[in-house]
Every structure is written in C-alpha cells, then in structure tokens.
Fold this sequence. Notes:
Elements: H1 23-69, H2 73-83, H3 94-120, H4 127-136
Amino acid sequence: xxHDDTRGRDLDAEHSRPEGATDAEVEAAGTxxxxxxxxxxxxxxxxxxxxxxxxxxxxxxxxxxxLEASGHTGLAARLREELIGLNVIAGRWSFQMVEDFDDHYxxxxxxxxxxxxxxxxxxxxxxxxxxxxxxxxxxxxxGHEATPQDL
Length: 151
C-alpha cells in the first residue's frame, strides 16, 4: 500500500497517520498489532483449554462414582488415583499454565506491541487498517462512512 495524503483526510485523529510516518513504519506497526491479535486469540484458546480440563476432571469424578456404584471399584479407583487431579504438564495444572502464559509471554507481547505503536504511530491503534478502509470503501455511499460520526 502506498501512502496517499488524501486517503487519511476523512480519518479521525485517533486513526490518522502521524506526520512523518512512512508506509513501511505504518505497515510494520500493523503487522505487530496483528500478531498481538493472534496471541490474544491463542490466549482465549488457552483459557478454553483450562476450563475444559477442569470440567473434564470433575466429570471423571462423576464417572468414577458411577463405576463404583455399579460394582467396578477397581476402575473407579484407577480413575481417582491415576487421572483425576493429574498435572496436565509436568508440575502444573492448567491454571498454572494460564498464569505463566499471562505473566510472561502475553504481558511481554502487549508491552512490546504498545512500544511499537508509541514509537511509530504515536500510540494510535489500527492506523494501517484505517488507511485500508479509506482505500477500499466507496466514498459517499451509505454504509461506507469513514467514521460513526459521518452517519
């Protein structure tokens, strides 16, 4: 995408290209922000994993109770001793995985994405996408307004 000074004329200040920012810089900031969005999605999947494993552990307890009630005490005991409460990875339950991810990888990714935006786009979010919108929308057509204020 090449920069066209008329492309950003309808953008609100929060999404407009800062003075002096190059195409390469705006694109790089957009790429880093897109990567953070993917990390956010991965984080959501990790939280889903955490909740599903917890629910499965309780369901296994119910299954062990049902097996025991139907006379399968050995199988019930194996479930309780070998699987229920088992660490999902060495030394950790899923809540510990979530906490470690949040405290290290996710926090670092957020901090660095913010640093890129602060330095390259004066902290503005989605500058690259806002310029794409200006380029791709049909100016003057209903439903193609630049901002909600243009409705």
